[in-house]
Amino acid sequence: MTEEENKEIKIELEEIEQTEEAGKIGEVCYADTGPPSSVITLKIQHRPDDLRLGQPLVIETEKYLYYTLIMRLHHATNELAEKFANTPFTNLLPPAQVEGVRGSEFYGLADLSCLRILPNKTQKELEYQELMRGFDTIPPIFSKGREVTKDEINLIYKKSEFSDAFGTLRGFEYEVPIDFKSLVEKPYGLFGRTGIGKSILNKILCLFILKHQVSQLLLFDMQGEYGLVSRADGTKGLAHYFFEKIQIYRLSEIDQKDKTADGAEHFFIYKDTINSGDIIASAQSLNEPSINTLIQIE
């Protein structure tokens, strides 16, 4: 390649300008439906600390709207950043101004969890079944990620006679309703590290289920948190709000004072009502000879 041709290429690259779209957060650079895990990765256009975990975003394509929540924020591995860190150069040149042919060399990434895929149509054009689609395809590379609109939130989180507001979305002050009739018809769980409030959250869920009368509840309360008053923090339990609907049983002996306070009764099982099938079903650690012995005794 001659020197003149090389100059022409450099001039063409310098004339390329990136136009910023209003509300744009970034562009898709990776997507995977799983297994083992499903994720859409967004290259963040500006500062990553403008975003928060749990914040709702929409990936918009010509065909679909991917409704997502931010589940992880991180920086890409960058050898140049490792070389610049702890040197005087970091104060001389802000990372946002370090530009290359591919844009800024220093950028943040957002891993998104896709909850719903909607056709890119108006609300009147949508059919009900189209609202039920899960994460079964991926957006094209460079698809735009943007903030969710209030109309899209209202479309996704529809209210029913069995729904109540359960909280707000980060970055979007909108009370999210949960349909508790639909909730109890599906298996679900609450997971998290110790001390983040799983018991309190589950207690609130149970209260709404009792309020709407959509299911019966059987709770094995190992820490005494769901009765009249929680032994752990003194907060009100289920029996405080629905005393007539709650029956409490305890394995330990009950004195008259406790029985008067929460109406608890002593729970026991007569030996004559236990058969080998009950024991086998709950004792998966038994070996085969032990199981055969139980059957022979019966």
UniProtKB/TrEMBL annotation:
Helicase HerA central domain location: 167-252
InterPro entries: HerA-like, HerA_central, P-loop_NTPase
Pfam families (alphabetical): DUF87
UniProt protein name: Helicase HerA central domain-containing protein
Lineage: unclassified sequences, metagenomes, ecological metagenomes
